[in-house]
Amino acid sequence: MFIRINGKLYYLWRAVDQHGNVWDVLVQSRRNAKAAKRFFRKLLKGLRYVPRVLVTDKLASYGVAHRQLMGSVAHRRSRYLNRAENSHQPTRQRERAMKRFR
Q1: What mean pLDDT do residues 16-45 have?
Q2: Cα dist from 48 to 13, 44, 52, whole Å
Q3: DSSP letter string over 10-79?
Q4: Fewer Cβ neighbours under 10 Å: the N or C end of the chain?
Q5: Cβ–Cβ contacts within 10 Å for residue 50, how many?
Q6: Model confidence band, residue 20 (pLDDT cutoffs 50, 70, 90)
């Protein structure tokens, strides 16, 4: 998801479990393999177990980070299985409301 902070474009990374609960959020200026690895490392540090399946969208940098950090975990790349897209809705609503106060 893209968000604007002080007129600059940033990327919002989210980790969501199978029930739709948000586990982790990270805002970064880039969306490359290095940024994906940083997000996965931050996420795995807080977990006490290794996940069974990782579901992401079709961004290529997720595949690079997955192979380097979690090679044994199954990786599914699907637009329809990705629950993080639904968790962006409250952020979009806040963003829309703030556009009125320019």
Answers
A1: 82
A2: 20, 8, 13
A3: EEEEEEE-TTS-EEEEEEES--SHHHHHHHHHHHHHH-SS--SEEEE-S-HHHHHHHHHH-TTSEEEE-S
A4: C
A5: 9
A6: low
CB 39 within 8 A of CB 13: yes
CB contact set of 40 (below 8 Å; sequence gap of 6+)? 65, 66, 69, 70
Provide the pairing of β-strand 2-5 with 8-16.
Answer: antiparallel
pLDDT digits (tens, 9 = 90+) for 44-87: 887 787 788 888 777 888 889 888 988 888 888 776 665 555 55
- How far is residue 25's CA from residue 12's CA, in Å, rounded to a whole number? 7
Cα–Cα–Cα angle for 48, 52, 53, nearest 5°? 120
52: tokens are 């069974």
Looking at the DSSP assignment, which residues form a beta bridge with residue 75?
54
Name residue 99's beta-bridge partners: none
